[in-house]
Amino acid sequence: MEATKIYQVLRDQIVWLEIEPEKALNLTELAEAFAVSRTPVKEALLLLQSGGWVRRHGSHFIVTPLSLSRIKETTEIRYALETQATLWAMERIRPEALRRLLEVRTQIQSLGADADKRTMIEIDVDFHRQIYAAAGNSQLSQMLNDLLDHYLRFWLWKRSPIDRQAFFDLTLDILAAIESGDKNRLRRACIHHIKASVDEIAQLF
Question: Which whole number is the average pLDDT over 108-125?
């Protein structure tokens, strides 16, 4: 298996907390698990380190801890980049992409009272990824997708259930603003959406 594939597998496991924050990663054990030599595993871990997913700890790598300072720094970047990306998405989105984006509203409205946390988070992630793609800037989309994945770890780490209505109210407001072409409403909704997210996560600390 190539280093890039190992990187992607480990990255997904870190994002979805299948590998928990601060867990030490052993090169020999990972090499055995992937049935490869230590070299591609180390290359994968260096890629993870460059993306902020792991850090060196002596001769080992550990999964990056979740901290309030980290989420605050990430949020500052999101305020600037995600708001602009959403405005561009509204201006540039094509009819078919808009139709797919508005299907998110149907998904939200069809959620039952027993909807689990992962299902709700997956809908939210799909919503954001569609907007990033619609912004029409591949570099910006990549940066925002990386930031979103870092956010995911915090949401999944939150042990209490997600309030479905509170979680999706601002998502629905963003969709309505995009549909109507209301830039001011869209800008306000984006800022409130990000703020609500970080306020919720900050309660963990």
Answer: 89
How large a percentage of the chain has pLDDT more than 70?
Answer: 100
**Which amino acid belongs to residue 194?**
I
Q: Where are the domains of the chain?
A: 3-63, 68-202
List strand residue ranges (DSSP E) for 17-159, in order.
24-25, 54-57, 60-63
How many Cβ atoms are within 10 Å of 83's Cβ, its own excluded?
Answer: 18
Q: In this structure, are strands 60-63 and 24-25 parallel, antiparallel, or unpaired?
A: antiparallel
Mean pLDDT, rounded, for 140-169: 88
Fold for the domain defined by 3-63? Arc Repressor Mutant, subunit A (1.10.10)
Nearest to 84 by CA among 190, 197, 169, 198: 190
The 10s digit of each residue's pLDDT in 25-82 is 999 999 999 999 999 999 999 999 999 999 998 878 999 999 888 888 888 899 999 9
Question: What's the predicted TM-score (pTM) here?
Answer: 0.88
Q: Name the one residue in this structure whose structure tokens are 């993870």.
A: 48
Sheet holding 54-57: strands in order across?
24-25, 60-63, 54-57
pLDDT higher than 90, residue 161: no
**Of the candidates 71, 62, 74, 78, which has an alpha carbon nearest to the alpha carbon of residue 27?**
62
